[in-house]
Inverse folding.
């Protein structure tokens, strides 16, 4: 989780993780730990450009 937060924090735009009815800031270690990781987690990136770059960087953390 720490490495994921470090990667996401390199970007200026907002990134959220959502699980069920809960959504947290992906730059918050405590927020991520509050999610139920046994359920699917949705990644929401709030940016108009640079999506391809962050998706390539986050590829090791994403399920296909």
């Amino acid at each position: 989780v720490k490495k994921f937060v470090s990667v996401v924090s390199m970007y200026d735009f907002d990134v959220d993780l959502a699980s069920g009815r809960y959504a947290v800031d992906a730059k918050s270690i405590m927020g991520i730990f509050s999610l139920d990781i046994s359920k699917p987690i949705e990644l929401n990136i709030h940016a108009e450009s640079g999506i391809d770059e962050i998706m390539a960087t986050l590829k090791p953390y994403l399920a296909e």
Summary: Helices lie at 2-9, 29-33, 51-58. The chain has a mean pLDDT of 93. The CA atoms of residues 17 and 43 lie 5 Å apart.
